[in-house]
Amino acid sequence: MGSILSELPVTRHPNAYFGRGYDSTVTRRSRLVLLAAAIYGLTLALIAAWPSHVDENINSLDSPPGTWLIELGLPPNRAYELVEASANVILFIPFGALLMLGSLRMTWLRATAVALVVSIGIELFQGVALPGRTASLRDVLNNTLGGIIGALGVVVWRRYARRRARRA
Fold this sequence. Notes:
By secondary structure, the protein is mainly alpha-helical.
């Protein structure tokens, strides 16, 4: 059986980055991505399953983004909404990036769809199982936007890496 497999042609995915030392670093890179995904996934699960609002004991309007927005003339309630929305976007940027880095076959559209489904699942879980939390369509949209930003960031990075490899 080993001889049959060794005679099969080896093909590589067209989106893959192939520079010097690619084969020797693939395993290390995939392990790092897996480790980062595990840490991120655990953190996301803890945030999602926290029994009360995560920012309940934090006055985000006393932090620099909140104070800056108020100084710019936004009413405190609008400033809080913007800070919370930004936090939800930022929370899912690694999600989209890690999905893209974890698979060469992942497209940014698929990563966006996965971010949307996971975000809907989190909000449904919070709405049904956690009485101290609030499920929100706005959170789903902001989380999905974060997933898109992360995924597109990897697309841009891969294109840059390919161009750089061609020049070398």
